[in-house]
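Lab manual, section 2.4: Encoding a predicted structure.

Procedure: take the sequence of the chain (128 residues), apply the prediction step described in section 2.3, and record the output as structure tokens. A sample record is shown.
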Amino acid sequence: MADDLTLGEIRRELQRLASLAGSVERPKPTRINGPDHQWPGQEWDLREMTPPHGTKDKVWVIRTVDEQNTADGLVYVSTPESMYPGIDFVPLYASDARQLAMALLAAADRADHEALGVPRLEDRRKAG
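Recorded output:
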């Protein structure tokens, strides 16, 4: 760690690292749909934080399908902006879903650092 870090920068970096450590484990599914369900498999609900003047609960639903006849290696995503949220799904190949997830992680990391005004330790190492 660089010697010229302020106490505030160290605290912010520790908060970032603690946040990262808390998000490393993969989330457990919200629901496991059994074989009698129309789309058997697992689903994850992700609730967005309500905007300051918003009142609508925004939920993303991510689904995988297990049934042999319909299992196709796709990840299905329903956004709050879907025509029918939670019912209307967009299919993504698993590789595209992973790329989307990694891009979201990278963008979130960048947004956190810009909002806090603290360069990442990785950036400090490159500069030093």
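Check your result against the sample. DSSP finds three helices and five strands in the chain.
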